[in-house]
Amino acid sequence: MSAEHTDNFHHVRDFPFFELPMGLKVELPNLFGFQLTKFMVLQVVAAAFTLFVFRGVAKRAASGEPVKGRFWNFWEALALFIRDEVVRPTIGDDHHHDDHGHSDSHGAHGESHGHAVAAHSGHAADKYLPFIWSCFFYVLICNLLGALPFLGSATGNPNVTFALAGTAMAATFIFGVNVMGVGGFFGNLIPDTGVGGFGGLALGGLMFVIELLGFLIKHAILALRLFGNIMGGHTALGVMLAFIAQASHESTALWGVVTVGSVAGQIGIGLLELLVAVLQAYVFSFLATIFIAGSVHKH
Questions:
Q1: Are 248 and 255 in contact (CB under 8 A)?
Q2: Distance from C-alpha of 180 to C-alpha of 66, rounded to nearest angstrom
Q3: Does residue 82 contact residue 132 with C-beta atoms inside 8 Å?
Q4: pTM of the prediction?
Q5: Nearest to 57 by CA among 35, 37, 80
Q6: Beta-carbon count within 10 A of 81 CB
Q7: Radius of gyration of the chain (CA)
Q8: Taking the CB of residue 291, how many other CB atoms lie within 10 A of it?
Q9: Contact partners, residue 199, CB within 8 Å, separation at least 6
């Protein structure tokens, strides 16, 4: 485990270098006055890996044959789970039909012929899949990179999570405007109060302000939730390492007991962090889907 975890807030800050064993550092270059940082590099790695995986899956699915190979099947299974258990049920297909008028049964028929992850499958909600898939897999890979020694989770930095939440908010607005129009999108924020006259107008205006603030706050919480859960795991690991350092000033027997307990605890928390990495990617994409569903349906 890297010594960087002894600082509870190490993962909140970004650094222009990678720390390696024995105190070695790999400095990152300054390109034309722009300093590269560790989290920038890790985000590029996450994006490149995601692109590599799904270009490979899409290429194999485009042949019309079932995708073969455990590696490719693993990622395809995750993509299908997000499509079938998150995007389609949450957004539904009643707000519009696809350009060719195909029914969902046509998409299901296509699946049987190996088109499981094809871009066009006939379900109205599938037009939002590229964005939701991108959210899920990008966040997932960023989270999982933190489980590798001497790297880190870019999603343990609030700058990254707020940028991701800002992207989700922009997508929600764009998708909503595409379906409802600008007036319809903002009008959708005003609930039917059932009150007429000036009182109804004033109440509607007040509710609009509350709903608009709620729209902004929901996406801010989306960023804070991801940051807090990823940062929390790193903090717990840092505290356990600090126990070992603190016990080193005591007797050898006490230091041995604390060291064994801390290492065992780190293994357990490390395994739990793997679950959290997947869970938080799912939560982020699921909430982003809910926000999109709310923007494309009249309510």
A1: yes
A2: 37
A3: yes
A4: 0.76
A5: 80
A6: 12
A7: 23
A8: 20
A9: none
Q: Mind listing the pLDDT tens digit for each residue in 23-38? A: 677 767 777 777 778 8
Closest CA to 150 of 14, 19, 259, 297: 19
Instruction: For the chain, give every domain's residue range.
Output: 3-296
Tell me: the pLDDT tens digits for 154-205? 898 899 999 999 999 999 999 999 988 888 888 887 776 666 667 767 877 7
Structure tokens at 274: 């793997």
What's the Cα-to-Cα distance from 180 to each of 71, 173, 174, 206, 298, rounded to whole Å?
Answer: 40, 10, 10, 22, 8
Q: Whole-angstrom distance between the N-terminal and C-terminal Cα of the chain?
A: 50
- Are 18 and 150 contacting, i.e. CB atoms less than 8 angstroms apart? yes
Query: Could you tell me if 155 and 143 are in contact, meaning their C-beta atoms sit under 8 angstroms apart?
Result: yes
Q: Are 82 and 133 in contact (CB under 8 A)?
A: yes
Residue 46, CB-side half-sphere exposure with 13 Å CA sphere: 25
174 exposed, middle or buried (CB, 10 Å; 0-12, 13-18, 19+)? middle
Measuring CA to CA, which residue among 275, 249, 237, 297 is closest to residue 1? 237
Closest to 65 measured CA to CA, from 108, 117, 102: 117
Count CB neighbours of 14 within 10 A.
17
